[in-house]
Write a structure and sequence with these properties.
The complex is a heterodimer of chains A (221) and B (464). With 221 residues, chain A is α/β, with parallel strands linked by helices. Chain A is 43% helix and 21% strand. In chain A, strand 3 (47-51), helix 3 and strand 4 form a beta-alpha-beta unit. In chain A, helix 2 runs parallel beside helix 3 (59-68). Chain B is built from 11 helices and 13 strands. Classes of the chains: A alpha/beta (221), B alpha+beta (464).
C-alpha cells in the first residue's frame, strides 16, 4: 500500500517514514506543499499523511485545492497547532481524520488501517482488527483464526464497530444503522445483539461506555 | 458611601454655588429695602404732618383759637369700607392724627386717635407707641411759631403690609425660580456631559477582541486626550493578548514536533528485537515521554484558558455535546484502560453561557484525573444535570479518595496527591479550578455516595 507523507520536519518525517516502512507500507516522503499537491493529483497513493505547517503552501490550502480537483484519496491531517479550531478547519477542508502531535505509532497505524479499511475494504472484502477479521463478501467472521457464525444483524453491528475500532460508536448511531427509524424496536434490542456478539467473541472484545455507546479496542482480546 | 454621578455632582455643586451667592445677596437687598421703606414711610409721615401744619396755619381754623368749641373729630372710614371705595388700593395705610394747642389741649383729632393719651411735654420726633391694641409709628411736630403740636401716626401693621408686599415681590420670584433653575441646570449639565455618555456607549458596545479604535465625533477638547489614551492602552492590550495567543501556539508547535519524532522513534525501537533489559528501559522512557507530553498539553491548555478568557466571548455551550466530544477524544483511555466508565443518565442538551474550550478542558481533566486514580476494574461516572439555578458537572470514582483534611490543598498548582498512581495530575485540577473560576462556578470535593472514592462536583450558576 502506498502512502504519501508530507512533513517538513526532518526528524519527525524520518521517524514516521521508518515506522511506516516497518509496517510494510510504501512511503513517499515530501517536504513541500507544492510538491505534495502535484503528487496528490497523480492519485497514485492510497492515503496521504499531511502536516499542516508547510513551507511554500499551507497544508490546509493543499488539502482544499486537492479536494477541489476531485482527489478523493483519504487524508489524515497531522497538526502541532492548538486544538479544536485547527481540527475543525482540517475536517472542513476535506480531511478524513486528524492526529495531534505527538502521537504513538499504534495510534497512527490504527487510523491508517481504519481509513484504508473503509477505502480498500470493499476491494479487499476484508476488515481486520487484531484477532477479529470480517469477510465482507461472504459475510463470514473469524475470531482467533476460528470461523464463527453470525446473523445478518450481528454481522452489520460488528462491521460498524470494526470500521471504527478504537473509537466509541454512539448507541443512537448503531440503532439507526441496524433498525432504521423503526420505533417499534425496544431499547434493549441493541443490548441483546451486543450480548450475542460477546458470547461468540469474548466479553472484552466489545467495550460498553455506558450512556454513550460501544467500541472495539484497537487490540481486542 | 453612595457614589454620585458626575452630572449629579455638577448639578448640585452649581445649585449650591448659586444658593451661596444668591441667598446673602437676596437677604442683603431684603434688609436694605426694608430700611429704605421704613425711612420712606417715616418721611411720608413727617411730610403729612408738615402739610397739615401749613394747612392749619393758613386756614386759621376756629377750633384752634376758640377753645370753648371743644375738639373736632374727623371721622375715619373702616378699612373695609375704604377698600371698597378705593378699589383695592391695599397700600392705603391706616393713619391718624391729633392737633393740640400750646396748652396741650386737643383741638382736632381723627376718630381713631380720639382716645390717644396726650403727652405731658411734646417733643418733635418719631416714636413707637402701643395704643388701642396696635403698634403705631408716631411723629410729633411742635410748631412754636404756629402754636400747634401735630401728632401724626401710622399703624405698624399697615406699614408691615407694605413691606410684606415688597418682600413677596422680591422673594417670590427667587423661591419659584430656584427649582426652575435647578431643572435648567440639570438639563444643561446633562447636555454638556453628553460626549462622556457617548464615550461610555462606545466602550460598552465594543466587541471583545475588536481592534477598532474608539472614535468619538466632535469630541470636546478635554475628552479627546482621554479617548486617545484609551485607544493607545486598548491597542497595547490587544497586542499583548495577540502575542500571548501566538506565543502559546508557537510553543505548542515547537514542543510537539520534536516530542512527536522522539515518541515515534521510541515506538520503532520497541517494536524491533531488543533485550529484555533494553525493553524495560525503553518502556520507562516511553512512559516518561508520555508524561512530558501530557504536562505540556496541560500547561498549554492553562495558557489557552487565560488568553482565551481575556479575549473571548461567552457563547451558548451545550454541556452534553462538549462531554460527548471529550469522551470521543478520550476513547482509548475510556475503552481500553480496564476502568469502567459511564456517562450517567442525561438529557439531550444542557445549555449554559460560557467558554466552550474551558468547559471541555474542565470535563476532560476531571475524567482523566478520576481515571488515573482508580485501580484496574474500578469505576468512574460522569453526570450532568440541572439543579435549581445551576448546571452540575459531577465525576464520581471509587478510587482511594482524598481525606477531608487534605482536600483544600489539592487545588494548589503542581500539587500531587501522594496516593496517586504516579502521574502528576495536580496540574489537571488547576485547569479545572481556573475553568470553573471563569464561569463563577464552585467546586466541591465530596465523599462518593458509595462511601469509597471521591465525588467532584462543579456547579455552574445560570446567571453570570
Amino acid at each position: 500500500m502506498h502512502i504519501i507523507l508530507v512533513e517538513d520536519d526532518l526528524q519527525l518525517g524520518g521517524a514516521i517514514q521508518q515506522a511506516l516502512e516497518r509496517l510494510s507500507y510504501a512511503v513517499t516522503w515530501l517536504r513541500d506543499g507544492r510538491e505534495a499537491l502535484l503528487a496528490m493529483r497523480d492519485q497514485t497513493a492510497d492515503l496521504v499523511l499531511l502536516d499542516l505547517g508547510l513551507p511554500n503552501k499551507d497544508g490546509l490550502e493543499v488539502l482544499a485545492e486537492a479536494r477541489r480537483s476531485h482527489v478523493n484519496t483519504p487524508v489524515i491531517v497531522m497538526t502541532a497547532r492548538d486544538g479544536l479550531e485547527a481540527r475543525v478547519r482540517g475536517l472542513d477542508a476535506g480531511a478524513d481524520d486528524y492526529l495531534v502531535k505527538p502521537f504513538h505509532v499504534e495510534e497512527l497505524s490504527a487510523r491508517i488501517r481504519s481509513l484504508t479499511r473503509r477505502a480498500q475494504g470493499l476491494a479487499a472484502n476484508r476488515i481486520d482488527v487484531g484477532v477479529i477479521s470480517l469477510d465482507i463478501g461472504t459475510c463470514e467472521a473469524e475470531y482467533r483464526g476460528k470461523r464463527i457464525e453470525l446473523t445478518r444483524r450481528e454481522f452489520s453491528l460488528l462491521r460498524i464497530l470494526m470500521e471504527r475500532a478504537g473509537r466509541i460508536v454512539r448507541r443512537e448511531h448503531l440503532e439507526n444503522s441496524l433498525y432504521g427509524l423503526d420505533n417499534a424496536v425496544g431499547s434493549s434490542a441493541l443490548e441483546v445483539q451486543i450480548h450475542a456478539l460477546r458470547r461468540k467473541l469474548s466479553f472484552d472484545a466489545i467495550r460498553t461506555i455506558r450512556g454513550v455507546g460501544y467500541m472495539i479496542p484497537r487490540d481486542p482480546t | 458611601m453612595r457614589t454620585l454621578s458626575l452630572s449629579g455632582r455638577l448639578r448640585w455643586m452649581i445649585i449650591a454655588v448659586l444658593i451661596a451667592v444668591l441667598l446673602p445677596l437676596g437677604l442683603y437687598s431684603y434688609f436694605r429695602s426694608l430700611k429704605e421703606t421704613r425711612e420712606l414711610l417715616d418721611g411720608r409721615l413727617a411730610q403729612s404732618a408738615r402739610t397739615l401744619d401749613v394747612m392749619i396755619q393758613h386756614a386759621s381754623l376756629d377750633v384752634l383759637h376758640r377753645p370753648e368749641i371743644g375738639s373736632l373729630v374727623v371721622p375715619i372710614l373702616s378699612r373695609k369700607a375704604e377698600e371698597q371705595l378705593m378699589h383695592g388700593r391695599t397700600y392705603e395705610a391706616e393713619v391718624g392724627y391729633q392737633v393740640l394747642d400750646m396748652h396741650n389741649r386737643m383741638r382736632l383729632t381723627t376718630a381713631n386717635f380720639a382716645q390717644l393719651p396726650l403727652p405731658s411735654t411734646p417733643i418733635s420726633g418719631f416714636e413707637n407707641i402701643f395704643f388701642d391694641g396696635y403698634g403705631w409709628r408716631l411723629f410729633t411736630l411742635v410748631d412754636d411759631t404756629n402754636n400747634v403740636v401735630i401728632r401724626m401716626g401710622e399703624r405698624d401693621d399697615s406699614r408691615r403690609d407694605i413691606t410684606h408686599a415688597l418682600w413677596l415681590d422680591l422673594g417670590l420670584p427667587q423661591v419659584v425660580g430656584l427649582p426652575l433653575l435647578a431643572l435648567l441646570v440639570g438639563w444643561a449639565v446633562k447636555r454638556g456631559l453628553r460626549p462622556l455618555n457617548r464615550l461610555r456607549q462606545a466602550l460598552a458596545s465594543r466587541a471583545p477582541g475588536s481592534r477598532e479604535p474608539i472614535q468619538l465625533d466632535n469630541a470636546p477638547r478635554e475628552l479627546q486626550p482621554v479617548v486617545d489614551a484609551l485607544n493607545t492602552q486598548l491597542e497595547r492590550w490587544e497586542d499583548a493578548l495577540e502575542r500571548e495567543r501566538r506565543f502559546s501556539a508557537d510553543v505548542a508547535h515547537e514542543l510537539r514536533t520534536p516530542l512527536a519524532s522522539t515518541m515515534i522513534h521510541l515506538d520503532s525501537v520497541k517494536a524491533s528485537d531488543v533485550s529484555p533489559e533494553a525493553w524495560s528501559a525503553l518502556t520507562s522512557a516511553h512512559s516518561g515521554l508520555a508524561r512530558l507530553a501530557r504536562r505540556i498539553e496541560q500547561l498549554l491548555a492553562l495558557a489557552r484558558l487565560e488568553a482565551g478568557a481575556a479575549a473571548g466571548q461567552r457563547t451558548d455551550v451545550d454541556l452534553i455535546a462538549v462531554a460527548m466530544n471529550v469522551i470521543d477524544e478520550l476513547a482509548p483511555l475510556l475503552g481500553e484502560s480496564g476502568v469502567d466508565f459511564a456517562f450517567a443518565e442525561h438529557n439531550d442538551t444542557l445549555k449554559i453561557r460560557g467558554y466552550e474550550a474551558a468547559i471541555a478542558a474542565l470535563v476532560r481533566n476531571l475524567i482523566e484525573n478520576a481515571m488515573h486514580h482508580v485501580p484496574l476494574g474500578g469505576q468512574v461516572q460522569l453526570a450532568m444535570y440541572r439543579s435549581q439555578d445551576a448546571a452540575i458537572i459531577e465525576v464520581v470514582d471509587n478510587g482511594p479518595g482524598i481525606p477531608v483534611e487534605r482536600r483544600a490543598a489539592v487545588f494548589a498548582r503542581f500539587h500531587r496527591e501522594a496516593a496517586s498512581s504516579g502521574d502528576g495530575y495536580g496540574l489537571g485540577l488547576s485547569i479545572v479550578q481556573r475553568a470553573a473560576q471563569l464561569h463563577g462556578a464552585t467546586i466541591e470535593l465530596l465523599d462518593a455516595p458509595s462511601g469509597r472514592g471521591l465525588r467532584v462536583r462543579v456547579a455552574i450558576p445560570d446567571a453570570a
